[in-house]
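Q&A log
Question type: sequence-to-structure
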Amino acid sequence: MKIKKLGLGLSLGLMLSATACGANNNKAAESGNSETKTYKIAISQYVEHPSLDATREGFLAALKDAGIVEGENLKVDLQNAQADSSNNLSIAQKIAADKNDLVLAIATPSAQSVVQAEDKETPILFAAVTDPLDAKIVSDLEHPGGNVSGASDTNPESITRLMAFIAEQLPDVKKLGLIINEGEPNAVVMADIAKTELDKHGIELVKAAITNTSEVKQAAESLVGRVDALYITLDNSVVSAVDTIIQTANDNKLPFFSADRDTVEKGAFATVGFKYYDHGYQVGQMAVEVLKNGTSPGEMKVTMQEKLDLILNLKAAAAQGIEVTDAMKAAVADPDNNIIQ
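Response status: OK
Response body:
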């Protein structure tokens, strides 16, 4: 009898131990599932160029810093329209047909297409959009509502300050040439602001219109002899071929101004702006709120870049025949970072 009781006790003990282990394993599995939750994000980018690429890199870096890492717990479906409107539309439709935890649209055309094609539930964030209201991406910047928000990559003050810099520091500039694709709403908005500001300084804005990237070189060359300097906005078709503008500016000693820092780093002389990597990082932080905390994009206000500075490229100045004065350098608030040697 004692042997039987001992055997029964051992059996019960083993059963209880197994039950406890099973419960602990279940808790560990549940904890593991929470820690290893995977996310799927679709990115629609209108075209490849330094500013938009830096935006995407900054976005993914913010996710990584929050523990959402591509190749580990994040799957990214990156689609690039190569500045083709038909590609852009089909990409938006493809993304809408998939199940994603979040969609990022980079540049105005991509954001417009994604918002039109996507359902009203999937969270959508945008970046590198000049005027979200004019583009009808959102109807209210403070309270977007619905499932869409993001960050604008322009601040009208940046254009105002750049046009004032041109007028004050390069008094010989009486005509400013603008290469523009007027099919891009963002480019038109910025061009209108620039013209208004230039009118105040008695400077004429001379446009050279294009319809696609392949026409940029010819448009730049058409302005030689007709203008005293060149300027481009955040115009995706134009920025994609900016190397040809830089070459034209250098060959003909024409000061070249841009609306973004990345183009200045490549060879434009000056802008008033910021780093697009930081812009993308800012939107990435919004994505973390959506993915980890369940915040609706519609509850997040659309942000814009507040920290602006004059950015100068001294090598570009030399190539374009510009004498960089002490007054120009003094206008840079953060010379260590924003005077490019």
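Response note: The chain has a mean pLDDT of 90.
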